[in-house]
Design a protein that fits this description.
OB fold (Dihydrolipoamide Acetyltransferase, E2P); single chain; about 190 residues; two-stranded antiparallel sheet
């Protein structure tokens, strides 16, 4: 030990000065002995929760589609044109404090339809927004709408009725199967 003006400097390695309970533990020992062995389980639970949320959204879309198909009325609507809807996304700082972006906006082209319901009343409704225009002004498009709430409607084609709902449903199922398998392997092994 070297002493400089009543201050002592230790020359032995730092690990030797630490109490045994605080000495350096290799990362492999952490994985083998417990602390980090829970990481796959935690990641699987988080992934499973995310998958469950997506699955519920998919089920909601499926329920709405089936409900509209069973209780809704079919009608031919006319495309009146498109309106722009702007969606804003706010970004914050990253972990190091750098600003990523203040605000980003995306403009969607939302088709506007008009139709006469079973009572002869004219309704104007907006469809789902897309990045590109699928319909031309004046096109005749089949819609399914709710008689009790004509604003609730879907375009009567495969894409609008099934693709979004089934995509969300199957992504949710996949995100649930993988974590369930990981948890099973972890507890079985």
């Amino acid at each position: 030990m070297i002493s400089l003006a009543n201050k002592s400097l230790h020359t032995e390695p730092r690990a030797a000065r630490l109490p045994k309970s605080m000495s350096f533990v290799p990362v492999t020992a952490l994985f083998a002995n417990g602390l980090l062995s829970w990481l796959p389980i935690i990641a699987s639970v988080v992934m499973g929760a995310f998958g469950g949320l997506i699955l519920l959204v998919g089920l909601g879309f499926l329920f709405q589609t089936v409900w509209l198909m069973c209780s809704g009325s079919r009608v031919i609507a006319t495309v009146m044109g498109y309106r722009n809807e702007e969606e804003e996304f706010y970004h914050h700082e990253d972990i190091s404090g750098h600003t990523l972006a203040e605000r980003t906006s995306v403009t969607f082209q939302v088709p506007v339809f008009t139709f006469d319901d079973d009572n002869g009343q004219t309704h104007e409704v907006a469809g789902m927004g897309t990045m590109k225009k699928r319909f031309q002004k004046g096109d005749q498009v089949a819609l399914i709408y709710s008689p009790s709430n004509p604003k609730r409607c879907i375009v009567d084609d495969f894409l609008n009725k099934w693709v979004t709902a089934l995509s969300a449903f199957f992504v949710g199922v996949i995100l649930l199967i993988f974590p369930a398998y990981m948890v099973f392997i972890w507890f079985a092994g």
